[in-house]
Amino acid sequence: MPRYLDRDRIAIVAAVVVPLVVSAILVPFRESFSNTNVALVLVVTVVAVAANGHRLAGALAAVSAAVWFDFFFTRPYQRFTITKSADVQTAVLLLVVGLAVSQLAARARRLHLVAITDAGYLARLHDTAELAQSTKSPDTVVDHVAAQLTDLLGLRGCRFEYGSLIGHPPRLEQDGTVIWDRRRWDVERLGLPDREVELRTFGNGHFYGRFMLDPTPGTIPSLQARLVAVTLADQVGAALDTAGNG
Prior knowledge:
Strand order of the largest sheet: 1-6-5
Distance between the termini: 45 Å
Protein name: Osmosensitive K+ channel histidine kinase-like protein
Main location: membrane
Keywords: ATP-binding, Ion channel, Ion transport, Kinase, Membrane, Nucleotide-binding, Phosphoprotein, Transferase, Transmembrane, Transmembrane helix, Transport, Two-component regulatory system
Subcellular location: Membrane
Shape: elongated
Structural class: alpha+beta
Number of helices: 7
Membrane topology: Multi-pass membrane protein
Number of domains: 2
Number of strands: 6
Mean pLDDT: 85
């Protein structure tokens, strides 16, 4: 988790600093380049920050680029004042285009990561389904899924309990949410609760048991990961139901 926080901080700092640095480098050449060309260079800078950061970083980079364009490249120089209407239009366009392009770049990067992640999730589901079909022992599927859940959700441990429910621990629901004391737990902000979380297993409408998830403090599994976890538990339920009816 700290690694992602550090990366976010770096992206925010870069969003503010990089357009300033690029603008300072271009200052000696401002009489040779038109302000339109300078604005285009700054848009490229915004895209570079957004592609390696996130939406907020891209938006800050766009604002920073517009501010430093005004400060360094519109008369009077070194003042946040614009006297020429053409420069006003260029500054506004730089801000608008920078914001739009930065959001597109951040979205493209996000979609690329999701695609890679989804491939991993699909592989987990495929491997589990294949094992459920090839083995005659549902316990093998249970053990396999327990290991998958540990890795998928970043758990300290995971065990399976057969039979009836005991106690009222936090529960991972079918929609990926976590319910604790009849209230929805904010996983995105707080991570999983600091105690065992149950993931119930059903097969053909019958309750067969539950996985008891032991979360690692500070780990925040994504909604996608939690939904895959629920699907894996359903595969165990199907395997247990098939064995019970076999």
